[in-house]
């Protein structure tokens, strides 16, 4: 009798673990889909780098112009930094200032969240890799000048495409 109770409890725990994993994956997918549908599209100027991954295939490693902050901007020891971006006359979003919680954004401004990387004024936004079909990485690097990115109100970003 004890064996069947343990087996039943073990099956319940296994089922619970599987359900929790499915819920976590569904939440992650739903958050990305929400970002795609409701995020504001912004165009960011690129400064491409040159990597290739043997395990993942060809990709273009991207460095955005907004990733390197001016020397006079101090990040301190922040783990997350939110930048306010505004479009220039060509529709390319540029760094305006570090976001402060009390700051009200203009209608054409967006906030993007980054993390300090290496150099004190260098930021990563989680959108630095763009995978491409095998053998096309060099051509994409040469032609890509801008990253088309969706940004939601919290500052989360998702790279959608590259454009010349």
Q: Can you offer a commentary on this structure?
A:
This protein has 164 residues and is an alpha+beta fold. It is built from two helices and nine strands, in the order H-E-E-E-E-E-E-E-H-E-E. The strands form three sheets. It has a four-stranded antiparallel beta sheet, with no helix packed on it. The longest helix is centred in the N-terminal third of the chain and has 37 residues, at 2-38. The protein starts with a helix and ends with a strand.
Order of helices and strands: HEEEEEEEHEE
Q: Which ranges are low-confidence, i.e. pLDDT below 50, for 5 or more consecutive residues?
A: none
Strand order of the largest sheet: 4-3-5-6
Mass-distribution shape: globular
How many angstroms does the end-to-end distance come to? 70 Å
Strand content: 25-35%
Task: Give the radius of gyration.
Answer: 21 Å
Average residue pLDDT: 82
Question: What's the total count of β strands?
Answer: 9
Largest sheet, described in full? 4 strands, antiparallel
**How many helix segments?**
2
Helix percentage range: 25-40%
Class derived from helix and strand content = alpha+beta
Tell me briefly what this model is.
The protein has helices at residues 2-38, 137-143, and strands spanning 40-45, 59-61, 81-87, 93-98, 110-117, 119-124, 129-131, 146-151, 157-163.
